[in-house]
Structure formats: structure tokens, C-alpha cells
Amino acid sequence: MNLRIVSLIAALGLAVLSGCNRNPAAVRDRNLQAGQKYFDQHKYDEASLEFRRALQADPRSADAEYRLGLSYMQLHRWGEAYRAFAQAVAIDPTDVKARIQVAELDLASNRLQDAQQQVDAILNIDKNDVGGLILKGRMAVQNKKYQDAQQEFLRASELAPHDAKVLNYLAGTDAFLTKYDGGEQIYQQAIALDPAFYVSYLNLATLYRGEGKADQETNTLLSGIKQNPAVIPLYLALADSYATHGNWDRVPPLFVELRNNSKNSSTVSLAIAQFYFGHGKLQEAKDVLSDLLSREKSKIEARRALIEVELELRQTADAGKLNQELLKEYPHDPDANLYQGRLLLIENKPAEAITVLEQLSHDVPEKALGHYTLGLAYGQHGEVDREIASLKQSLLRDPNLIKAYMLLAQVYVERGDGKLALSYANEALKRSPRLLLAQLIRTNAELMLGDPQTAERELSALAAANPNNAAIQERLGYAQLMQRKFAEASTRFEEALQLQPDFVPALRDLYALYQAQSKPQQAITRIQQQIQRAPQQGAFYEMLGDLYQSQGNLARASDAYKGAIAHGAGTNASLAYARLAQVSAGQQNYPQAIENAKTSIAQNPDLLPAYIIEGVAYEKTGQFDLAKRAYQDALARSPNFAPALNNLAWLECEHGGNLDEALSLARHAKQLLPDDPNISDTLGWIEYRKSLYEPALPLANDAVSRAPGNGQFQYHLGMILLKAGNRASARQALERALKLQLTTADAEDARRTLGERD
User: Fold this and answer.
1) Which residues contact residue 235 at a Cβ distance below 8 angstroms, ignoring those fewer than 6 apart?
2) CB neighbours of 225 closer than 8 A, spacing ≥ 6?
């Protein structure tokens, strides 16, 4: 054969082969096949990559979008799964299986109207589609229309009489309708029909648990395991049953059996670790994961799970080391970056955490936990508005993220917004009706909204179910205290302190109860008794100090605050030091007041009152520049801190000479606290200094009307009245001022002014 012809044939052959490789349909099918192989091996990251490659070859492949959605579902990337399924429907509106997945996710996110649209579309395509009928029934269950749901499930069971899944839905409606015998029979029928459909055993066991039939619950799960010896959820359900009924000793042998029946697979180890983690057995979870990693060092799921456990154990050094290794291999891994943010929060580095988590939320905006943790970081940094915004973003990504509802409810409780707190607590309880913390937050919101009767009713039920919970007893007592049921409230507070001797809220409420009854000495005696029972609770000493200080007994107050510092106030006794500084100032020991205030600030730079105490002490010792710096430091922390604005304005007026700056500061303070007489007096006096007598007069009158016993206010009013031309009223004000407490300089000026007038 001619060489040129051979070369031509070879070239043609290469062209044909190359053309085959570039055929989009062939590339798509090859990637789909590879992706499905990975999917069947439970390698969902790899599967999703292959399905995305299939879509690059053929962007109009509904099948590729659908399979990609299934992969994302396994990876718990719900937002991306939803978009993939929705795109499959957009490409092929008759794709019922994709529509079912969209409806499932809508239903899970409580988007009932969107789910209903998908169900209607499915049944329009095929009115006898079993999946569509099941979804329609589930929609009815969601709306608590159990009879309607039962009719839809009956239709589905007639169309698919041998489908155990349909029978399970049908049995579930009997349970909702409290027809427990009927539900048991249908579940048993499903088991007989298909013993390999393990969900039937799980549902029947759950029904028995609800009826309090512990033996039947256990036997059902044992039967399910016998028929399905390698099915992990059955073992986990049985382990949960053992744990719930106090038989923890039976859990480890059960897991040994599971390991033996599943060849000790990594999936089983991860499931066992997750079980222990969910039940608060953190060390057991760590042991399981450590063992798994000793066998499979590169198992990324195990490494992530171990970091999670170590974070909960506050073993930050171990978690940090493991996470740095993970970040080194996978620098853009979302979970590793999330863990890094959480580590920084545990180490009290919110600013650094915010940097990491903001980047994560930008790079992976669909990750709900990224937004949630960013919200935590903002909250720890004192940026409450941004905290709320991030928590709401997390709920847009995952409407079932219960802890986001919980945190929002708590934030609104702290903000004093009972209505929103109640709303978010109820959203959490919709998803987890027995969640105790959410129930407590809800009752707090009801108390804030002035409804102690409803709160008392709910708390009474909680107390009956949880008789050893000190927090519930305290809240119940508080609801009774709001209704002035003093005897009942006292009993509850005492019960809480009996259960937990160092429980601060209960003793604080008991203190408030004595105050409401004008029994300060009984309050002192009772606090002293509790200090004997819980001598390491620093807050009790602080409470005692507050009582003594309110009575003017500064020596005993000082001793009590020193006790708070020495007995259990911990490494951060900033509040006790601030109060001790206040007592020292009251004793005119200003150097000691300054020292204590500085210690308070060093321990907690955000404790703003400590700056005021420090500044006032500097003023009293004539160190006005240092006083200004103290107020400026407070304003650097919080630019809207009105006491610091007021005091700095006064110093600018009296010792700085910059009256314009003083006026600006005082007006800012007045906007923030319009009813504070000190601020009215300061602003009025600055305007007096600027010869603005007409606007100064109503401010001086306001200060005196709110605090008529303040000599300085009366003196300032008298001087302003004099300049305003009202000599008679000025004389009266100055004479009143001289009968009250005045500085030597002000008293001399008042006498001189009166003498000049005479």
C-alpha cells in the first residue's frame, strides 16, 4: 500500500476516534455511568463531580440534573439539591420523579403552597401516580386533615397493594387518629408483605413507644434485625430504646453485633459515633472515631466527625491540630473552615472568627450552618443586628434549623421583644414539640408580654414532668411572683435552691420577693444562709454587697464584694471590682476606686460603668485630663453611651473651654436619654455658658422638676433665671440650693450673687 494512502487512512481513523470523544452525548453518558458507579459505592462527592461533568457536556440533560440532585441530597446540601431537581423539571416538565423530589424538599421546608403546586402538576400528568397520591396525603397530614390523608393513602394502596411503603403511610394516619390497634395491624401487614422493608419495623416500634409498650418496642426491633441483620437504622433505634429505658449496658454488645454483621465498615463506625454523640456520650464517640481513623487515616468524614466531637469536648488543641491538617489538604473545604470559625469563637476571638466565617458564607452561601455560626460570632462581638441578620439568612437556607430559631428567640428575649421571641420559640417547637429549652424561652416571652397566667400554666406542666429541674422551678416561681403569689413563689425558689444550691436566678428572685415585701433584713439573712451552702458562688456575695450598699453600709458592702472576688467569682470578677470601686468612691477613697475600676476594665473592657466610676474618681482628685480619657475610652467602646457623653460634655464645659464640643456631646446624650435630669442640667448649663439663656431655662426647669433635692440643679436654675431676668424666682432657687448640698465654689458663688442683688 502506498505510504501516503496509509498515512491518510491513519489520519482518518484518528479523526473518527477524536470525533467520538467529542460527541457530547457520548461524553454525557460516560460521565453518567461513572457518576452512578460512585453513587452506588456511596462516594457522593465523586458522584456529584461526574454528574456535573455530564451537564457540561449536555446542559439540557434532565437525567444528569436529577442524579446530581440525589448526590447533593446524600451530602445534605439541600439548597443545591433543590436547584438541581428544579432545573430537571424546567428541562422536562413531565419528569415526575424530579417533581416528587422538589415537592419533598418544599414539604420539608414547610413551603406548603409550593409543594401543593408540584403535587397538582404530578397528578395532572398522571392522576394515578402513587408517588403523587402519597405526597397529597402527606400534605393533608401537614395540615392536620388526617381523614383526607387517609383517603389518599387508601387510593395509593389500591393502586399498589403490595407496596409496604404505602401501607406505612396508611398506618401512620391511624396513629394520628389515635386508632392504635388499626395502625399496629397495618404495620404488621406491611412487615408480612415485605420483611426487607425495615421502615415498617421502625414505625411500629415508634408506635409501641408512644403507647408505653417497651417490651413490644424492643421485640419489634429485634425481629427487624433478625430479618435485616446489616441494616444500621434498626440497631440505632434499638440502642436508643435501650438508652431511653436505662439499659445502657446492652448498647455496647448490640454494636458489637452490628460490627460483626457489617464487616466493621466505616459507615457503621460513623453511625455508632453519631449515636453516641447525639446521646451526649462524647468520649465514647471520640473512641469510635479514633479507632476508625487508626484503620482509615484518610477518611475525611471521620476526621470531620472527630473534630466536631473534640469541639464539643472543648479539646481545642486536638481539634485545632486535626483541622489544620484538613485545611492543609483541602484549603477550601467548607466544613474545615466552619470548624476554624468555631475554634476561634471558643478561644474568644470573635473578630478573627468573623473574618473566616464571612469568607465561608461568601464562598458557600447555601451553607446554613455557616450563616448560623457567623451569627454567633457577631453576637459574641456585640453586633446584635448583624447577628439577627445572619441567623435569618441561615433559616432561608435551612428552614428546619432549630437552633437558629432558638437563638433568635433568645436574642429577642434579651432585647425585650416578647412578641418576636414568642414567634421564634413557637417555630422551634413546631419542629421539636418537646424541646425543653424552647418551651422555657416561650414562657419567658409570655412573661415579658405580661401574661404570667399562661406562663404559670405551662411551667406547672413542665415542673410536673421535670421535678428535678431547678430552672423550671425558678421560672414557675417568677411567674407566681409577677402575680404577687408570694407564698407559692417562695416555695418554688426554695425548691430550686434545694435542687441546685448555687443557682443564682433563684436566690436573686427570692431577694426580689423580700424587697417587694419590704423585708431587707430577711433578704440579708437568707443570702448569708445560701452563702454557707454554696460558698464558691461569687454572685451571692455580690448580691449581699448590693443590699448593704443600698442601705448605705459601705464597710459591709466592701467586705461582701471582696468576698465575691475571693470566693468563686472566677478569673473574671469585673463586676465585683466595679462595685468595689463604687463603694471606695462612696468612702471618698478615690485612689482605691481608680485602682479597682482599672482592674474591672482590664478584665472586661466592655463593662462601661467601670469607665464612669474611674472618670468620676479622677474628677474628684482634680485629674481632669485622665477623667476625659476614661470617658473617651468608654465612647470608643460604645459611641452612644449617654453617661460618658454627658460627663465628657461637662468636663469640656467646665475644664476644657471647648463649649461647642461640649454642646454637641450633651445634645447627643439628650437624644439618647431625654428624661435624665443630669443630662438636662448639663445641657442647660452649657447653653448658659454660651449665653443661650432662653433654651437653657426649660432644661434647668426639667432637671429640677425631676430631682428637686439636688442642690447643683437648683443653683444652676437660679443662675439661669437671673440671666433671663426673673430675679424673684432666681433668688428662691439659689436660697433652696444653699440649703442643699453644694460644692464650696458653687455655694460661695450663690451667696455672692445673692449679696450682689441685695
Assistant:
1) 225, 254, 255, 257, 258
2) 231, 234, 235, 238
The predicted pLDDT at position 613 comes to 95
3 state SS of 454:
helix
For residues 686 and 699, is the Cβ–Cβ distance under 8 A? no
Estimate to the nearest angstrom the gap between the alpha carbon of 620 and the chain centroid: 44
CA nearest 670: which of 634, 692, 698? Answer: 698
What's the rounded Cα separation, in Å, for the pair 600 and 583? Answer: 14
pLDDT tens, residue by residue, 6-21:
333 333 343 333 444 5
Element (H, E) at 686: helix 677-689
Give long-range contacts, CB 8 A cutoff, 24+ apart: 701-708. Answer: 702/677, 703/677, 703/678, 704/677, 704/733, 706/675, 706/677, 706/680, 707/677
Residue 176 burial by CB count (10 A; 0-12/13-18/19+): exposed, middle or buried?
middle
Q: Using one digit for the tens of pLDDT, what is the confidence trace for 504-523?
A: 999 999 999 998 899 999 99
Give the per-residue pLDDT at 144. Answer: 83
* 173 CB-side CA count, 13 A: 23
Residue 174 DSSP symbol: H
Q: Three cell numbers at 315?
A: 479539646
Amino acid at 19: G
Q: Where are the beta strands (DSSP E) in 291-393?
A: none
The distance of Cα 196 from the centroid of its chain, to the nearest Å, equals 41
CB 189 within 8 A of CB 183: no
Structural contact between residues 506 and 496, judged by C-beta atoms closer than 8 angstroms: yes
In angstroms and rounded to an integer, the radius of gyration of the C-alpha atoms of the chain is 36
Are the C-beta atoms of 672 and 645 separated by less than 8 Å? yes
* Coil vs helix vs strand at 13: helix
Could you say which DSSP state residue 390 is in? H
Cα separation, 8 vs 13, in Å, equals 9
Q: Are 399 and 389 in contact (CB under 8 A)?
A: no
CB 232 within 8 A of CB 259: no
* Torsion sign over Cα 178, 181, 185, 191: positive
| CA atoms of 597 and 578, how far apart (whole Å) | 5
> What are the cell numbers at 417?
421583644
Cα dist. 39→34, 262, 296, 370 in Å? 9, 19, 20, 26
Q: Is 32 left (phi over 0), alpha (psi -120 to 50) or beta?
A: alpha
Contact (Cβ atoms closer than 8 angstroms) between residue 662 and residue 679: no
SS3 state of residue 26: helix
Q: How confident is the model at residue 756 (pLDDT cuts 50, 70, 90)?
A: low
- Taking a C-beta distance cutoff of 8 angstroms, is the pair 647, 612 a contact? yes
Nearest CA-CA partner of 538 in 566, 568, 558, 559: 568
- Give how far the C-alpha of residue 151 lies from the chain's centroid of Cα atoms, to the nearest Å: 41
Q: Collapsing DSSP states into helix, strand and coil, what is residue 403?
A: helix
- Please report, for residues 59, 331, 676, 753, the alpha-carbon distance to residue 719 in angstroms, rounded to integers and kept in the order given: 84, 70, 21, 8
Can you give the pLDDT at residue 572? 66
CA–CA dist 296, 294 (Å, integer): 6
Burial of 744 (0-12, 13-18, 19+ CB in 10 A): exposed
Q: For residue range 72-81, list pLDDT tens digits in order.
A: 999 888 889 9
Indicate the residue type of 135. L
First to last CA, the chain: 138
Look at residues 296, 309, 303, 297 and name the one whose alpha carbon lies nearest to residue 323. Answer: 303
Single-letter code of the amino acid located at 625: D
Q: Taking the complete model, does pTM exceed 0.70, yes or no?
A: no
At 175, list the grid cell: 396513629
pLDDT at 3: 38
Query: Distance between CA 428 and CA 406 in Å, rounded?
Result: 6
